[in-house]
Specification:
The complex is a heterotrimer of chains A (177), B (360) and C (101). Chain A is mainly alpha-helical and 177 residues long. Chain A has helices at 3-24, 28-48, 52-76, 92-113, 117-120, 127-131, 133-142, 148-169. Chain A is globular, with a radius of gyration of 21 Å. Chain B is mostly helical. Chain B is built from 13 helices and four strands. The chains are: A mainly alpha (177), B mainly alpha (360), C mainly alpha (101). At the A-C interface, helix 1, helix 2, helix 3, helix 4 and helix 7 of A face helix 1, helix 2 and helix 3 of C.
């Protein structure tokens, strides 16, 4: 086993174990921490893939903002955390079947149908591009030939979500008591 | 020193990281002493002067005490280590034990990208422009922002796991404060990035060859400094130390060295943010004759960090504490708009200068 | 031999299934929410892996848009959950059944 494989297995092991913990832990706060750990593992995978910029963005947004927001919601509504008799919902059986079947489908698609010669001999990524990833990404986002319109739409989406979230969570007057 | 392979780089980073961590931890110890001494002087007191001094006999038979108190940090550390380490019964064990560690780790992480000196022969690897634990991380600024955003976790974990209402209130307060001021800080950090045209901290330092960004961008520097104070929870933003309301905030259930770890993280972050301020606005390791004698870079960095620490302590001695609602509205309604407007002005100015509309 | 693209695809599939399991099995709306984030992450992982193996950056650009969508989703979704909690005093998804008629 090479060093890269070892690191990959370690990081992906962390990601998967943390993911399983998210699904199995009964304590919401612990589950949120496990989710944070899983995000950390994904950031590690990004670094292995040479996407350091994305890894930093993952840390900044997923771990620093999204996880914290969820943890805040959990801390602010402590009654949510009261232990319930069962952690599963009433349709868990059907859900389990669906999830297992979808996994089998994924495995089937990956092993049988998806075989492209492009991936069997990955092209050597020119290091010049890899060194200039940030510059390239930046110009991709704002050049009219590339992604400027999705970029603007995304910013509009964020603004709309912000306003919507404030509106939805705004306390009603009668709720104050 | 030549470094060719990845494993050599790893060994180099490990060794340098080890040394720099020790330097900063020692710095932490003496920052506490500096703070106590300087605060005392600003308040017409003497400060700690018993632990460790150099006796100098004088003619009158009495002895003069020189450097009184220089062993005080060691005495404090010994005291912290030998105190009883109490664990309250109702705490959430795992997270309770993890919280102090998670608080310290991000502080150490940020050390990795700070340039302490320029290219110094023998100790900077060949081909690198500056001396740092991990030189050549081209997204250094983003790395710093990312790690800063992680450091909220220590506070949240400590507050939640203590299972005490003071702790959780303090934790929520402190983390909301950190998140709010992170925005303003992130936006002002982008100003030196735009001016230097790079997210590499070494390039930002070299970009201040002609003039420090402090003079070019005093508003950004001021906003960064205020946001850094809030991020560090230093006075006047030290609400978590508001004993009158919250006993000791999220650290209330911690004792002995676990409490000391929070302390360690706070002071390490003070040093680190002063170093960052130096890098972003005070020209980092640059100073007179640094091109001829590169090792002077260490001296200049240390000097600028020392200056920053003194200003922080001075602010603590001078300003009263914010109220929590004032703190929030100041962060969101004053600092954030200022930093956004400043950011836009700088962006437009840079474009205008590059297009030749404005000439400098 | 290094870690090839297949490894990353496998990791992504496993992570996706874990997320799907959480969404389909758990009762707490917050956990469901977190598992959706896990599934989005597994998709991101695949984007980056393919971007790497194809040697271009479009995958990474798409990941940014996914992150934006995730952020928007968290803001709105958490607001909804908090509101539901406020009115129904519970975030058990079995009890959110107004549409049942």
């Amino acid at each position: 086993m090479t060093g890269e494989q070892f690191v990959f297995l370690a990081v992906s092991g962390l990601t998967i174990v943390a993911g399983i913990l998210v699904v199995t832990l009964r304590n919401l706060f612990h589950a949120a921490l496990a989710m944070m750990l899983s995000f950390l593992g994904v950031a590690g995978i990004y670094i292995m893939l040479g996407a350091g910029f994305l890894a930093a963005a993952q840390l900044l947004i997923y771990i620093g903002a999204i996880s914290i927001l969820i943890i805040f919601a959990i801390m602010l509504t402590r009654r949510m955390m009261q232990a319930q008799d069962t952690p599963f919902n009433s349709q868990a059986g059907a859900g389990l079947v669906t999830a297992v079947l979808s996994f089998i489908l994924l495995v089937f698609v990956i092993t049988r149908l998806w075989r492209n010669e492009i991936f069997d001999s990955p092209p050597e990524v020119p290091t010049a591009i890899m060194n200039q990833i940030v510059v390239q990404l930046g110009s991709d986002f704002v050049s009219p030939g590339a992604y400027v319109i999705p970029f603007i739409v995304a910013s509009m989406l964020l603004l709309a979500a912000l306003i919507g979230a404030v509106y939805v969570a705004w306390p009603q007057v009668e709720d104050e008591a | 020193m030549a470094i060719n392979t990845l494993s050599q780089l790893a060994v180099y980073s490990l060794v340098v990281g080890f040394i720099m961590t020790f330097v900063v931890i020692t710095g932490f110890a003496y920052t506490t002493l500096l703070e106590r001494k300087l605060l005392a002087r600003l308040q017409h007191r003497v400060g700690p002067n018993r632990a460790g001094y150099i006796p100098i006999p004088t003619r009158g038979g009495k002895e003069r005490k020189l450097l009184g108190g220089f062993m005080q940090p060691a005495a404090d550390a010994v005291k912290l280590f030998f105190k009883e380490d109490m664990t309250p019964v109702m705490v959430d064990k795992w997270t309770y034990f993890l919280a102090p560690i998670i608080t310290v780790i991000p502080a150490i992480f940020i050390l990795a990208v700070i340039p302490w000196a320029g290219f110094v022969p023998y100790i900077t690897p060949e081909g690198r422009d500056y001396f740092a634990i991990a030189p050549g991380i081209n997204v250094g600024v983003l790395f710093i922002l990312a790690i800063t955003s992680i450091s909220v976790y220590g506070v949240v974990l400590a507050g939640w796991s203590s299972n005490s209402k003071y702790a959780i209130l303090g934790g929520i307060r402190a983390s909301a404060q950190m998140i709010s001021y992170e925005l303003a800080m992130g936006l002002t950090v982008l100003v030196p990035v735009m001016l230097a045209n790079s997210m590499d901290l070494g390039v930002i330092v070299e970009g201040q060859r002609g003039m420090w960004y402090l003079f070019l961008q005093p508003i950004a520097a001021l906003v960064f400094w205020i946001a850094a104070l809030a991020e560090l929870q230093r006075a006047p933003f030290d609400l978590l130390e508001a004993e009158q309301e919250l006993s000791a905030g999220f650290t209330v259930e911690y004792s002995s060295m676990r409490f000391g770890m929070f302390f360690l993280a706070e002071y390490m972050k003070m040093i680190i943010f002063c170093a960052l301020f130096a890098v972003f606005f005070l020209g980092g390791y640059r100073g007179p004759f640094v091109d001829q004698v590169p090792a002077l870079g260490f001296v200049y960095t240390a000097l600028k960090v020392f200056l920053g620490l003194c200003v922080m302590i001075w602010i603590r001695a001078s300003l009263p504490r914010f109220r929590y609602d004032q703190l929030m509205s100041f962060g969101w309604k004053v600092l954030l708009p200022i930093s956004v407007v400043n950011f836009m002005i700088v962006a437009v100015m840079i474009v205008l200068v590059e297009e030749g509309v404005l000439g400098f | 031999m290094t870690a090839t693209i297949d490894w990353y695809v496998a990791l992504s599939a496993i992570l996706f299934t874990i997320g799907a399991l959480g969404v389909l099995l758990r009762r707490s709306a917050i956990i469901v929410f977190m598992c959706i984030e896990l599934m989005l992450n597994s998709a991101n992982l695949l984007f980056v892996a393919f971007a790497r193996s194809l040697g271009d950056l479009h995958g990474q650009v798409l990941v940014f848009f996914v992150i934006v969508v995730a952020a928007a989703e968290v803001a709105v979704g958490l607001a909804l959950i908090v509101t539901i909690f406020r009115t129904k005093r519970s975030i058990n998804i079995d009890e959110i059944n107004l549409l049942k008629g």
